[in-house]
């Protein structure tokens, strides 16, 4: 069967791959393009997926290192999910959420609430992560308007954060280059320092760094005024910022400050939710916090169908129901809110996670982290960090100064190109390589992945030396 699929992929490459690439260059606008190539660019064409592997247009089989975009958690080609998609589409392909509802969305909301911490019990569905964060922020605005606090709208975010591409969600982003040429609601957002221990001031202990972050948060609330701040939005692990793991206890202390100052804590679990750290949600099970809202997407359907959402605390909803404005309308919704096909797929995906994938993730995660950590032996690697089945290899020109490669900001792309040739797709982020494979990956496949990544970095070091960019 595998041989038949490989032959099919090769035939696809010979017949249709070149055509698709040319059509892409002529008609497709890729996400995050540069002005110099916008609307005239083709990227690596992927034809098939199977388990942890994908096949490109040349027929080369690659380990899907990023699991699509942090999302193909149960792996490619899961017949169970494809069958559910078909069956639900044949039964009910769509219903308007404005004045009707469907059964899969109600059942899924109940099951999601069962995994959420504390009293997070109600779900508003969106089409993805950006719209989930946007929804949480709009709900915060509505909530404070109804409570008679229209000035309580400012949002706290952090350096290194990534929360989406819609207007409000993108305004929170704090990664390099994200906002260089893009507008945003800057008047609503206050940026705090990234909780990145690797980039803490030289000579500062981890405990002192944690105190600095907490003091900065508390001082900002005091300076700006709690009556002006509506929400703090934070990823438990800053994913696209380079898999930044916060210091122990930091999130709990920030949660307490938010609670003491009536600031809604929004935990952005678009990446960490649905298994990436071995649990459906990491907020409570991994970090011991009980947010007011949790956003999710990606792994909720393992990427098989666009779906996201916000889980909202019962306390917030009760306050709204008790308010003096019972006719106030939360004027927010999406055409595909509570989509029946997406919710049906998510239900089956959750079955797979609960049956074996979550326990498997927890079992192999320590091995995954240990094997990645061996890459710190390479002179180009400054730090390897991660949690669960997400990891980052950060390359630096000088380990002492921790200076990213100023002469070569595209070192991640160089490594990715070598790894592609060797059989691994990498997520390159400037001077970092991010890895988040499908959760079904085995120890043997982890060995393969890390071995290829080691060789890709080694070849990149050779290239940089030859070009005189880096001495090592």
UniProtKB/TrEMBL annotation:
Instruction: Enumerate the CDD domains for this protein.
Output: OAT_like
> Which InterPro entries does the entry link to?
Aminotrans_3 (IPR005814), Aminotrans_3_PPA_site (IPR049704), PyrdxlP-dep_Trfase (IPR015424), PyrdxlP-dep_Trfase_major (IPR015421), PyrdxlP-dep_Trfase_small (IPR015422)
Q: Name one GO cellular component term.
A: cytosol
Concerning Gene3D superfamilies, the annotation shows: Aspartate Aminotransferase, domain 1, Type I PLP-dependent aspartate aminotransferase-like (Major domain)
> What are this entry's molecular-function GO terms?
pyridoxal phosphate binding; transaminase activity
Name the needed cofactors: pyridoxal 5'-phosphate
Instruction: Establish whether keyword Hydrolase is in the entry.
Output: no
Q: Give the record's keywords alphabetically.
A: Aminotransferase, Pyridoxal phosphate, Transferase
Q: Which family does it belong to?
A: Belongs to the class-III pyridoxal-phosphate-dependent aminotransferase family.
Mind telling me what this protein is named? Aminotransferase
Q: Which organism is it from?
A: Mesorhizobium jarvisii
């Amino acid at each position: 069967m595998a041989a038949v699929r490989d032959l099919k992929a090769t035939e696809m490459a010979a017949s249709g791959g070149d055509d698709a690439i040319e059509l892409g260059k002529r008609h497709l606008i890729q996400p995050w393009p540069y002005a110099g190539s916008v609307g005239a660019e083709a990227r690596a064409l992927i034809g098939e997926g199977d388990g942890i592997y994908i096949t490109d247009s040349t027929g080369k089989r690659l380990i899907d290192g990023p699991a699509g975009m942090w999302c193909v958690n149960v792996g490619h080609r899961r017949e169970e999910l494809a069958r559910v998609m078909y069956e639900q589409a044949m039964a009910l392909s769509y219903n308007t959420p404005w004045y009707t509802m469907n059964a899969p969305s109600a059942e899924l909301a109940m099951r999601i609430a069962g995994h959420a911490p504390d009293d997070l019990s109600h779900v508003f569905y969106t089409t993805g992560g950006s719209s989930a964060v946007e929804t949480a922020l709009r709900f915060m605005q509505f909530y404070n308007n109804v409570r008679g606090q229209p000035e309580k709208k400012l949002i706290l975010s952090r350096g290194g954060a990534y929360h989406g591409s819609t207007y409000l969600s993108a305004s929170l982003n704090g990664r390099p280059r994200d906002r260089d040429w893009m507008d945003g609601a800057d008047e609503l957002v206050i940026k705090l320092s990234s909780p990145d221990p690797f980039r803490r001031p030289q000579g500062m202990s981890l405990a002192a760094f944690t105190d600095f972050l907490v003091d900065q948060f508390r001082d900002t609330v005091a300076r700006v005024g709690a009556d002006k701040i509506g929400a703090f939005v934070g990823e438990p692990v800053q994913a696209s910022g380079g898999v930044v793991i916060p210091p122990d206890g930091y999130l709990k202390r920030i949660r307490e400050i938010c609670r003491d100052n009536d600031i809604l804590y929004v935990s952005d679990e678009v990446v960490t939710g649905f298994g990436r750290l071995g649990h459906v949600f990491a907020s409570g099970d991994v970090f011991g916090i009980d947010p007011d809202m949790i956003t999710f997407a990606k792994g909720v359907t393992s990427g098989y169908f666009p779906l996201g959402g916000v889980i909202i605390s019962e306390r917030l909803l009760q306050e709204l129901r008790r308010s003096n404005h019972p006719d106030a309308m939360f004027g927010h919704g999406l055409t595909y809110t509570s989509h029946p096909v997406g919710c049906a797929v998510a239900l089956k995906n959750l079955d797979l996670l609960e049956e074996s994938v979550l326990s498997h993730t927890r079992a192999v995660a320590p091995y995954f982290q240990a094997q990645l950590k061996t890459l710190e032996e390479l002179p180009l690697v400054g730090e390897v960090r991660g949690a669960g089945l997400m990891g980052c290899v950060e390359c630096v020109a000088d380990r002492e100064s921790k200076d990213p490669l100023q002469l070569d900001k595209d070192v991640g792309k160089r490594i990715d190109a070598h790894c592609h040739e060797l059989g691994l797709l990498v997520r390159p982020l400037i001077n970092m390589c991010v890895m988040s494979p499908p959760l079904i990956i085995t120890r043997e496949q982890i060995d393969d992945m890390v071995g290829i990544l080691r060789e890709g970095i080694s070849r990149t070091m050779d290239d940089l030396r030859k070009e005189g960019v880096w001495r090592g």
